[in-house]
Amino acid sequence: MNGAQSLVATLVDQGVDICFANPGTSEMHFLAALENPKMRSVLCLFEGVATGAADGWYRMKDTPASTLLHLGPGLANGLANIHNARRASSGMVNIIGEHSAAHLKYDPPLMSDIEGLARPLSHWVRRAESSSTIAWDAATAVAKASGHPGQIATLILPGDTSWQQAGTSAIPPRAAATRKAPDAARIEHVARVLRSGERTLIILGNKATRGVALERAGKVAAATGARLGSQFFSARIERGAGRVPIERIPYAVPLAQAFLKDFRHIVTVETSEPVAFFAYPDRPSLLKAEGTLVHPLVEADEDSALAFEMLLDMLGASATRPTLQPRVETPVPSGALNPLSIAHALAAALPENAIVVDESLTTGRETMGHTMGAAPHDLINNMGGSIGYATPVATGVALACPDRRVFCMVGDGSAMYTIQSLWTQAREGLNITTVIFANNSYAILKAEYANMGAGAPGERALSMIDIDRPRIDWLAMAQSMGVPAVAVETAEDFYRALADSAREPGPRLIEVRLY
Amino acid sequence: MNGAQSLVATLVDQGVDICFANPGTSEMHFLAALENPKMRSVLCLFEGVATGAADGWYRMKDTPASTLLHLGPGLANGLANIHNARRASSGMVNIIGEHSAAHLKYDPPLMSDIEGLARPLSHWVRRAESSSTIAWDAATAVAKASGHPGQIATLILPGDTSWQQAGTSAIPPRAAATRKAPDAARIEHVARVLRSGERTLIILGNKATRGVALERAGKVAAATGARLGSQFFSARIERGAGRVPIERIPYAVPLAQAFLKDFRHIVTVETSEPVAFFAYPDRPSLLKAEGTLVHPLVEADEDSALAFEMLLDMLGASATRPTLQPRVETPVPSGALNPLSIAHALAAALPENAIVVDESLTTGRETMGHTMGAAPHDLINNMGGSIGYATPVATGVALACPDRRVFCMVGDGSAMYTIQSLWTQAREGLNITTVIFANNSYAILKAEYANMGAGAPGERALSMIDIDRPRIDWLAMAQSMGVPAVAVETAEDFYRALADSAREPGPRLIEVRLY
């Protein structure tokens, strides 16, 4: 067994059994090691697809995937979606191929400071020094990535570490992945706040927006009158009919301020108090009203399910029944496509247990509330704000959940960053419906131009915002990578295309023509 | 005038009059400042296109372009082609938008360590602290980027620096861009080596492969019997009929060793002694034979034209006539497409003064010698080895040289990394013929798999190398972004498509079907 084989064997032994790969010459022994039948390899034609897919995998599985990237530039191409994954608290194990140690002193063309490139966005970085210790390194990387919250672990794999013989390899004892218990005094304090009857918003983040934590949060809300909210962007929310509903703090600063202004208290759960996404010349960074008090209930590394259990005990409310979202049957819309009819079409078409990956920006983000009463589903957002996240994340999500339909809602400008995802979706036959909102513009920037106090964009500025020359032919784009596609120009056609796509296996693309 | 306007005004005053932009919310004031009619803005749909285009611009102009990128992740997406530009000694001024200073302490979603991401691949990094000093910062960045060799200068632009008033701004005095004179003793030493009559290879790098430096190198060769060589990859070579010919050191280690083995001396000019591109288990890193002596003639920051003038003086050979490449009329090939017939078609079709950007890897790189006797042209290579460089670089090259036809020779796998370039090429009506070598495979990796001693790839490894499921439909891909395209399956059709493309303005794509 050589170092590469030892690495792959350790990854699968530790539960990391998928690798999103974009290999190069220095990773040939790793490719050979991928013959290990326990490891699934998924080829991506661009590294940002690989890292985004690993993020999507984690969001659904709560366990890390691995990526295989080619030296410093390969890592660099994956960094934007590593940033997004990091902000989503997704765990990920990146294997970065590197020249053999003896070759580095000659400064060959592909050499760069891989550690330097990895550190700003990784929680843990290590250069594997020997084929006999790579198993230890790999197990450590998996342990780091698997913690709560998930972490970005980056392991640099020199060629000689890969190709030399490994011998017998020790690995560190596997620590149970635990979440810290929250501080009882802090919970007691929040219980007092909630008993005060003063208006309180409980903001749920990371893993508190789903499962038993969300159910218990719903009981707290029902027992105390507190409201449940989320940041505008969340890693994954279980929502729709029968779920505990969560209110979404708006994106735009004035709307967020209006939403928050009446709360005397904000209680945070695995998140922090709301902050504006961008800085604007005449607007605040913090969104709460003056005088609103912020109370952390659960820190990022703590267990929110346990915290809510303790809180319910203190409140004597364990038996309270949470208010659940009723099913709202949305009639199939017709006529013009606009944000509202688009949201209605989605609400009507969403099949049971679907997963929505949302990067629809101007088109979808203000109207997502209309899908609250749809069939139960998961909603995934971009936590890091680096656009080009949706199509890769949907790719990983679909691989993690092959029995569920994935709807990837993405603006045309955003989709172009990582459009190579479509090829992997076709190759793997993934059940993804990619919805392209084609307004031929970075439309969000038109609003932001005014928000920034830059006035109305002039001709040259506008030419940097509109992407209508040439207009992207989305049907041809989908065809080029083997994804069947259709364009729609009415709400009823959009609904039909969504519903049709959910009935057939494999990827589909719908171009929603907004021009 | 606000900070952004001061920045743009300074850039154009200092001679940087093009900006390859992919803007976001934090760069709205910069967009507004782009209304400055002296600055040309070129929109790119992915940041790697912007940085690669800036590289291409520099290769033809020898002066830097600017890029506009959106925070840390936007920079990250541009890093792979910054790596390639750095290895090509191309100067570049990157402007990276950033949150305003007051917003950073809240750790907003898009925040990252921009300096940390920039430093590994930039020669100079600065965070602009104030709108009144940004002009100074910008002028410093341009001066750094404009040195010899060119450098990567990265200027981080916080929102408040952008939107606050600039007042009167000082800028540093403009230093004349000079190249250092080489050391006379070193030149004398090389003159002695050349007079010895022992077999000598003079390896030309960076700016020594063109213009007066190349002419003078040709005189030295003619006078002394030394041979002229280049590394396998060069930033730009002026070649073809009437130019001083340069022999190319082969890529594959055994071939490079065979080429170099008979030389007693290697003289280096703006480059170093030849090194293997990758490390292999049983092959050396250094390619020269044992006993070969290496003599640096011109260091990277020195003036090779001056060095050769001094050398010719010492040799008393200033009046020698260099041997020039004769015109070789290549007959139009016919029949099957293979590396040889492809090279012949290119040689026959190249119009006078064309520019070839080569990333053809397995298909083109071993046969480029067959175009040595074609009409005079420039040849540009990937110096950093991060693939996905050719289509962006061709974009910048075509903008720099609107009157010349650009041929971008690229493998299908490579083209997919930064395929968004096609859109900018269509938008700007650039005279680029993109030639896609469609072998549906990362074919180079099949050879490298064996070179690495990993044996024959098994089924799973092969599935990470072949990209034929699905086969990319290149005609649809080109159509999706507004580029007219044709597919060819014979050498005569390939020749005709090349020749036709050169007669019409605007971009074209030719899919060369190798399957």
From TrEMBL, chains A, B:
Transmembrane segments: none
Highest taxon listed in the record's lineage: Bacteria
This protein's name: Acetolactate synthase large subunit IlvX
Keyword terms, alphabetized: Thiamine pyrophosphate, Transferase
One Gene Ontology MF term: acetolactate synthase activity
InterPro entries named in the record: THDP-binding (IPR029061), Thiamin_PyroP_enz_TPP-bd_dom (IPR012001), TPP_enz (IPR045229), TPP_enzyme_TPP-bd (IPR011766)
Domain Thiamine pyrophosphate enzyme TPP-binding: 376-512
Catalytic class of the enzyme: transferase
EC number, as in UniProt: 2.2.1.6
Keyword Transferase part of the UniProt annotation: yes
Family: Belongs to the TPP enzyme family.
Domain Thiamine pyrophosphate enzyme N-terminal TPP-binding: residue ranges: 1-105
